[in-house]
Amino acid sequence: MGSEVALILQTANFAAEKHKSQRRKDVEETPYINHPIGVASILSQEAGITDIVVLQGALLHDTVEDTNTTFLEIEEKFGPEVRKIVEEVTDDKTLPKMERKHQQIEHAPHCSHGAKLVKLADKLYNLRDLNRCTPRGLASKENSSIWPQSNCIDPAILQETWHHSIYAFQ
């Protein structure tokens, strides 16, 4: 157990360092690190996920997409399994936003179980954030465009893991 706690703390510290200058788009400008920690917390506390690799993937899920972190760096520090999850959930920021969203939908059914869990918890966290407050510069009608992406992920995961929370947004 001690080594697992150390791994989670090492991963959280790495993510915090990478995201240290970033803020969420909410009116409070919440520190960005709250997001990956929140995603990992949903998996751990609400879904009962204890797989360290999945929890590490949750903590690191936005590092390559939103910072100067590379997949190689993730693999060197955390191993190939963590890299695989991070790679599966990372969007290609060189593509236009709508194309990225389309690729998420196309790609989701082919992701590993761990990546699906991370992606779903990420969407759930973002939906809860949208429910809490509308981000700066986002019209509320745009909020509904996020939900259809989550419908493409394995329905068994939805039913087993976040039944009450997810269906509140339908």
UniProtKB/TrEMBL annotation:
<dbReference type="InterPro" id="IPR006674">
    <property type="entry name" value="HD_domain"/>
</dbReference>
<keyword id="KW-0464">Manganese</keyword>
<dbReference type="GO" id="GO:0046872">
    <property type="term" value="F:metal ion binding"/>
</dbReference>
<protein>
    <recommendedName>
        <fullName>Guanosine-3',5'-bis(diphosphate) 3'-pyrophosphohydrolase MESH1</fullName>
        <ecNumber>3.1.7.2</ecNumber>
    </recommendedName>
</protein>
<dbReference type="Pfam" id="PF13328">
    <property type="entry name" value="HD_4"/>
</dbReference>
<dbReference type="InterPro" id="IPR052194">
    <property type="entry name" value="MESH1"/>
</dbReference>
<dbReference type="GO" id="GO:0008893">
    <property type="term" value="F:guanosine-3',5'-bis(diphosphate) 3'-diphosphatase activity"/>
</dbReference>
<dbReference type="InterPro" id="IPR003607">
    <property type="entry name" value="HD/PDEase_dom"/>
</dbReference>
<keyword id="KW-0479">Metal-binding</keyword>
<keyword id="KW-0378">Hydrolase</keyword>
<comment type="similarity">
    <text>Belongs to the MESH1 family.</text>
</comment>
<feature type="domain" description="HD">
    <location>
        <begin position="32"/>
        <end position="127"/>
    </location>
</feature>
<comment type="function">
    <text>ppGpp hydrolyzing enzyme involved in starvation response.</text>
</comment>
